[in-house]
Amino acid sequence: MRIAQISPLMESVPPTLYGGTERIVSYLTEELVRQGHEVTLFASGGSRTAAELVASAPRPLRLSRVRDPAPYNVLQLEHVRQRLDEFDVLHFHTDYMHFPMLRDLAAVAVTTMHGRLDFPELAPLFHEFHRTPLVSISAHQRRPLRANFVATVPHGLPRDLYALSREASGGYLAFLGRISPEKGPTTAIEIARRAGMKLKIAAKVDMADQEYFKEMVRPLLNQSHVEFIGEIGEDQKGAFLGQAKALLFPIDWPEPFGLVMIEAMACGTPVIAHRRGSVPEIIEHGVSGFIVDSLEEAVAAAGAIDGLDRAAVRRCFEARFTAEIMARSYVRLYERLARLQTTGARGAAAPASQDFPLLRA
């Protein structure tokens, strides 16, 4: 198939450091190319891909420190519009700015929603564009919103991106991602303290969370069991996660997916996660980790983590969360939407459970 992948311009594809959406766009794009499809990637300059790259901004917008990203986003949509006849399917990862363009579009188009959808101001927008085909990344993500979800496709990683680490040689608990209240870094610190275990924190601090970090997190970093590493790159994740006894994921928000969970699983590292958002769809309780409902349960899980088979954790990843599985799921969706379009039924929704079954704890 001739496929256009349209990525946000804030980060390169793949991102240099933090950037979940752009990382998934990269994994999907490269796997589609590997499977023999003709792919064009619309992304920022500095992106690295085996596909044809169309750069609508010379550099990732986050690094450019632009005052207003809107002109670049509009320019990207125009670059896509100019080449509509070249593609069998357009796959957007850019939230909803492109929705008006899709109204009279002859091409097959689908949009993966990567963020949370429980904000009340989204309801009238998705009501207006109620026929726009959408993909959710978990069943939980779509619950707050009445919209035309045509599939749920979980994220996937390249099978060989991380290797199985059969022993947690570092002996520590890991926290990886972003410092913010909803991610629960202070809870992770307390879990490790009560469990009598070392905690290593590899996380970025966005400008929006500087005050939270200064007031709530930094005062806790002087404890002897805590080591704050800061933001790490892709080339460091394998060792960081693989040497950990477990990944702590004490979230306090409706997490749409949680990419770091499957990154840990790919290393054979089990996950201790709060029962929020997509967690019960990702973690198989007692096999790939523990799903907990309280601080006390998390501490108990940390004490029991050595009882889990790290090879079994890796097998859970391979069975459901590889880039190959993700790409084949999307191709089936592209083909199904193309068939619906030719029969005049484009936009008809189908339950995710029919084609993309989800694991529930």
TrEMBL record:
Domain of life: Bacteria
GO MF terms held by the record: glycosyltransferase activity
Entry keyword annotation includes Transport: no
Residues passing through the membrane, by range: none
Domain Glycosyl transferase family per the UniProt entry, residue ranges: 172-305
Gene3D superfamilies per record: Glycogen Phosphorylase B
Protein name (Swiss-Prot/TrEMBL): Glycosyl transferase
Species annotation: Methylocystis bryophila
